[in-house]
What we know:
Bound molecules: phosphoenolpyruvate, magnesium ion
CATH topology of the largest domain: TIM Barrel
Distance between the termini: 35 Å
Oligomer: single chain
Strand order of the largest sheet: 8-9-10-11-12-13-14-15
Amino acid sequence: MKGIPVSAGIAIAKAVVINEKHIQVPQRNIVDVQAEIRRFTQGVGQAKLQIIAIQKAALEETDHDRAAIFGAHLLMLEDPEFLKQIESKMREEKVNAEYALQMTVDSYMTAFQGIEDPYLRERSADLKDVSDRMLRILLCEEKVSGLSIHEDSIVVAHDLSPSDTAQLDRKYVMGFITELGGPTSHTAIIARTLDIPAVVGLPGVSDHIQNGDQVIIDGESGEVLLNPAPPIINEYRDKQRSFIKMKQDLLQLKDAPVESKDGRKIQLAVNIGHLNDIKLGLENGAAGIGLFRSEFLFMEQKGLPSEDLQFEAYRKALALMDGKPVIIRTLDIGGDKKLDYLPISQELNPFLGYRALRLCLDRQDIFKTQLRAILRASMAGNLKVMFPMVSGLEELRKARQIANEVQQELIAEGIDLNSNIEWGIMIEIPSAAVISDILAPEVDFFSLGTNDLIQYTLAVDRTNEKVAALYEPYHPAVLRLIKMVAQNAHQAGKWVGICGEMASDIQLLPVLIGLGLDELSVGPSAVLKVKKAIRSLDFQRAQIIAKEALQFKTAAEVKHYLTDQSNISEKGEFR
Ligand code: PEP
Ligand code: MG
């Protein structure tokens, strides 16, 4: 099979299939029926609480239609006839709650199918929704044990949300294969951060591969081999060895300065999501943290993390980096990053919706708590803060105003704050790039979030494998925006970096450096590869390459030109 390669390396291990598409309902014989009925009743109570929370959130957003849908769900779980039927199945057939629920729901579904009335047919979708919620609650233990892995495994799934991956024991995860996703979906970014091979965009793969199958992933070509013959396994073990050797060789560069052959210095930093990633970054010689995706801290908790818990995490990050710059990005929830405990009502276009700074400006309680924690940690090191998803000046000013209020509060409380904190924004919405001349005077720095900038500029969902081929970092529109942002930053005397995944594309490096970017922030496993390439680059030549690359009319032409010009050796150096 061949999918979209998103994280390089070879993995050879047994598959663990997490198939969330169809919930597998086990049938068990029950001895203590009364206890089973109690378990069922508790499950109903839990489901009702979840539904009430979602309904409340919908009402707060004056989304009455959505609130009404959940009102109907609630009624189903309060319908005595429905509940009685399930209970009688448990009593009469001595079966487990999930199975009794499934059988009852199936019989309702069959009845619904014969109905002409579209309104009533719609209710079958609601019934399915309610029953899936109940099944997930009742099967909770099974699901968790499916996710908890005790031996080296390749995780195969329809989709893996960032919060799913946050629950996996990293020690045993050798690779990822998913049906959904694109090269900059957050699952792909996590795989690169963990430095494990991953292939996404393989429809049907979670049905095709069974638990325990032997699987090989080639994260460079996108190939996935199922139950390969021993000679093939040996061939891939050789490949795996040479890949590991190449990485070890790179380690010699850990302490080498990051500058071009003609002396242009670049700040080469690392992107992290988890405190553990800092170790990886430092081992690879990162000169700072260019992007701390603080939302992962929120995903690892069962509820909103307290100010103290956040403070401790930010303080640790700053202390571990020991005076090197640490850019903490404020919460970026929404899009493909969800929090179970902070339900966001269903949106048709979540990437265009209630996300990141928009959510924070609306939920100032969450925002202020985070800002307090970040600022309190500021004495521990070299702190910079940036806001994600800024689309215009009002949002930037609003965010800064709230940060100022928090700062004043802390000063009034007698808390010492670092007086050299820099404040920046991500440039990841095209509108911000276009008005970067207006934004630049009001910030200390820009960081180009090209993962989003590309998706918004080209209108290509970064997580949708069906349009992954259209997701094009080499698109002239993207390159023009980067050029514009770099120029506007420098004109205002501000520095500009890039923390999107395109910063680790060696082929594009001469363009990014040639356009004058001051900082590159990449995943931990890419730091040394990028360092090696920068050290073999000639800045003056890069400026010419950047200028010429921007003359082309299509992404294909740009790519062709860069392949020709860059002339990258097998060792990853410019010739
Ligand atoms: C980006 O959008 O480029 C970025 C770095 O942020 P994230 O990938 O977390 O959206
Ligand atoms: Mg982004």
